[in-house]
Amino acid sequence: MAGRIDARLAELGIELPRPAAPIANYVPYNLTGNLVVISGQVPMDDGRIAITGKVGMSVSVDEGRRAARICFINLLAQLREALDGDLDRVTKVVRLGGFIAAPAEFTQHAAVMNGASDLAVEVFGDAGRHARTTIGVPSLPGDAAAEVEGIFEIA
């Protein structure tokens, strides 16, 4: 039987993908105490990076926002794996960290990262409100436009 978070994802029309395997020497998540730390996720969709390039150059702010949203969906896929399929164990989205590939003069990083932050609140309600850091970077793995990492509190 699907839990309330699975039901909410279905309402939003979101089907979580199979979690991506690490591409280097790291683990996709770590559980410690009542926290789950999820490694950075790029906007992987159907086995490929869906949105590549630099936001503010070849990628619009709206496309960047969509990239950050896809990153959060991939965070949820890793989180579901870490929690043996039970996303209802999440009590709080503690922190999201966003990395936006952009040129030095780009200043709308926060608007891009809202793609992930807004979805966190859509999925988890008030428990989705989180602390956040968003920075611009010159490049990301696979030329991804964004990467998002997260820390979640669990019961």
From TrEMBL:
Residue ranges constituting the Endoribonuclease L-PSP/chorismate mutase-like domain according to the UniProt record: 7-143
SUPFAM superfamilies given in the database record: YjgF-like
Pfam families tied to this protein: YjgF_endoribonc (PF14588)
Protein name: RidA family protein
Species assigned in the record: Plastoroseomonas hellenica
Upper taxonomic lineage: Bacteria, Pseudomonadati, Pseudomonadota, Alphaproteobacteria, Acetobacterales
